[in-house]
């Protein structure tokens, strides 16, 4: 009787593993879904406040959106907003970061990363306000 159960148990184990992998794949990369930029002239000529909205299917501490970057046209990371915990029940979520952008840069790209896939989701290019 137990010998006949071995193939069934093996099949169930493979299927369960497939569901776990599929669950991770569903979470996918972290997507930047909105960016607003304010020029903080009173704080300095090149200070900007970035209001970034990110969407990610956070599943807990092992897989969540853990940061977003502001990247210059040449690929240089100008600033990073670290996200310290999952946002399972707050999707999408918005966070702010004040950043000094070097003079002469007019456009930047905002990208979000997660603990499993890194920076693999939707990005947004924005023009800085005057």
What does it look like?
By secondary structure, the protein is α+β, with helices and mostly antiparallel strands. The protein has a single domain, classed as Immunoglobulins (Immunoglobulin-like), CATH 2.60.40. Helix content is 20%, strand content 39%. The chain is built from one helix and seven strands; from the N terminus they run H-E-E-E-E-E-E-E. The strands form two sheets. The chain has a four-stranded antiparallel beta sheet, with no helix packed on it. The chain is elongated.
Which residue ranges are poorly predicted, with pLDDT under 50 across at least 5 consecutive positions?
A: 5-26
Strands ordered across the widest β-sheet? 4-3-6-7
- By CATH, the superfamily comes out as Immunoglobulins
| Cα end-to-end separation | 77 Å
Q: Please summarize the sheet with the most strands.
A: 4 strands, antiparallel
Structural class: alpha+beta
- Estimate percent helicity: 10-25%
Count of helical stretches: 1
Shape: elongated
Number of domain modules: 1
In CATH, the architecture is: Sandwich
Mean pLDDT: 83
Tell how many strands the DSSP assignment holds.
Answer: 7
Order of helices and strands: HEEEEEEE
Q: How much strand content do the residues show?
A: 35-45%
Radius of gyration: 20 Å
The CATH first-level class comes to Mainly Beta
In CATH, the topology is named Immunoglobulin-like
